[in-house]
């Protein structure tokens, strides 16, 4: 794959500052990142959390505006040190707490001081003033910021060497937030240029912290004094993060912290995600000097598919299909977009040749839908398509329909293959759970086929489900475990949506890349299938073919 592929997805943690500046797309409410509020940034892996934090970190922000009013310190939890959690096994919880905080504050301090050194923020006189203040708090008497960083790094190395040998050393000499970070912030604010600066620690991938470290971080947040220091914590999901403090109380949204949700609504061309995705693709096309910079023109829909869809629309309006034939022509005209694609895919399923001569999985709208609202899921197929086009063309002005179709089908098939090996790739997933996820998603797909083939169905393109009355059900724990593993694997995504009786409920959307290899349309409407906990469990037991699903689609007798 050539390096000049504009769509290659790379985690923000692996990108250079120059590349981040080049590819960053601003989002709504991004100003919360540089506020004095405590903030949790929620979004699935690949949704742009790290990019958002990196772009607003002090190392990059100071390079842009040379301002010191806000100093964001990026700290990643995707490190070997944070995966070392043996201290949680200690019998004495206080000892575990001390070691956990020691690890966390040393890492944060190293990030803070290294950032200041890299940006050459302090001149020689200011550095001496800072170290003089530090000398008051610590057993350290060398007038050099770089030497103080080495002092902190030495503590980290000592920690890793001795954690399992002599924990008592850490009980006696461990640092805390109050004994390390607060004195350093206090000393920095003695420097005139930093007197009014606000320091904010950007904790990326906070779900990787140990449970004890989460409690510690939540306790700092619960202090609610953000005049000098605040915390911005990115998490993959609230389901993977506990909001308890070390005193067993709970920090509360809009009281102790705000939430920035990166999960954008993604139905239709007017959705927030569609607009964001279009900006991402078009910025990359422009940066790589591609002649065609319009995303819809670069990923065009297949001409024959467009033509057939237009013909179906006309026949539907004239009442030539069983679907909504009983309704008025005015009704059919108003609702044609809800049924034209469904009729196309219904006829495609009814055809004995699974791979019809037409090519439906093409166009930028299809691409944004198969991404299921996740930017990484958008860039992966774009990367593959561009790479395949490069094999035959030196200059690319658009991705032809055949390339789009074949790439999407191949990625769909490979996703089903991945499903069978979840137990070896996802933590806490055994073979039984992996098999249940595979069977459930197969049955859900078959249920969608049954709905599509039912000419009397009013909801044709349902790609989302909810679970009714799960809270008090005896199967709640098992169902939640299955869903959690599926979400970790990027096979199901959840969002909060409208429920019955004006309540809010969780909407689950299986990764839409799955559907193209089994003949379903990944472009769906904002409808949902309600599943009872009892039927959910039954849907994990054995596969039932779509031709055998009864009209109501219940799985009571599986």
Descriptive notes:
- This protein is of the alpha/beta class and 558 residues long.
- Among the domains are: 37-261, no CATH class; 420-558, no CATH class.
- Helix content is 46%, strand content 9%.
- It is built from 21 helices and nine strands.
- Helix 13 packs across helix 15 (336-350).
- The radius of gyration is 27 Å and the shape is globular.
- The model has no long low-confidence stretch (mean pLDDT 88).
What is this entry, summarized?
The protein has 558 residues and is α/β, with parallel strands linked by helices. It is 46% helix and 9% strand.
* Strand order across the largest sheet: 2-3-4-1-5
What is the number of beta strands?
9
Order of helices and strands: HEHHEHHHHHHEHEEHHHHHHHHHEHEEEH
Question: What percent strand?
Answer: 5-15%
Radius of gyration, taken over Cα atoms and rounded to an integer in Å: 27 Å
Largest sheet at a glance? 5 strands, parallel
Attribute tags:
558 residues; alpha/beta; two-stranded parallel sheet; five-stranded parallel β-sheet
Helices and strands in order, then pairings?
Blueprint: H1 17-23, E1 39-42, H2 49-56, H3 58-65, E2 70-76, H4 80-83, H5 93-118, H6 124-137, H7 145-162, H8 168-173, H9 177-188, E3 198-204, H10 211-222, E4 229-235, E5 258-261, H11 272-287, H12 295-298, H13 303-317, H14 329-334, H15 336-350, H16 364-370, H17 375-390, H18 401-419, H19 431-453, E6 465-467, H20 476-488, E7 492-498, E8 504-510, E9 529-531, H21 533-538
Helix pairs in contact: 5-7, 5-9, 6-9, 13-15, 17-18, 19-20
